[in-house]
Amino acid sequence: MEQLTSRQQQVLDIVSRHIEAYGYPPTLREIGAQLGVSGTLGVLKHLDALEKKGYLRRQEGSTRGITLSSQGQGATLPIVGTVRAGALHPAIEDVEGHFTIDRSQLDKGGTFFLRVKGDSMIHAHIREGDLALVRPQPHANNRDIVVAMVAGEATLKRFYRESNRIRLQPENPNYEAIVIQEGDSEVSIIGKVVGIYREME
Predict the structure, then answer these.
(1) Residue ranges of the LexA repressor DNA-binding domain (predicted)?
(2) Whole-model pTM?
């Protein structure tokens, strides 16, 4: 499923909200009014892009000829940046797009995606470029795969709390565990990884 630009996501949200409120889709001019544009050419371009990406279907010759696909009725979450599955690295917080998943997947509590960089978790079937669905939470159980901050730098690892230390364990024998002794450095859990999504092309 292709990602949306922020403007395409805005158009899709306008269409979805209108259908939910009134039971029928908005006209091009109604969409344009909510976008703050006077013409319909820009709106048409966004609708064309959404149709090509599979989020909706349009019926020519009808002012309200827009039908949401099952993808369009999914839950769209932001991709808020990247996280290293490797050495510690400063977190990059910059919404690069959105990704839509089936609403049933929201039962896991995931609210945002991070794009994975690096290969330290390949034996957990997490590869560079994957999207990690993250459920924000400040704690973790042993063996959970988490996004953790250590001294202000982020990493994606398997979590272990031991007697007087925390171990962030990679799933690749080429990498060493990150071990934080009690009192050495501040460790905070950003969230638990509850899903991995991969684009095949």
Answers:
(1) 1-65
(2) 0.62
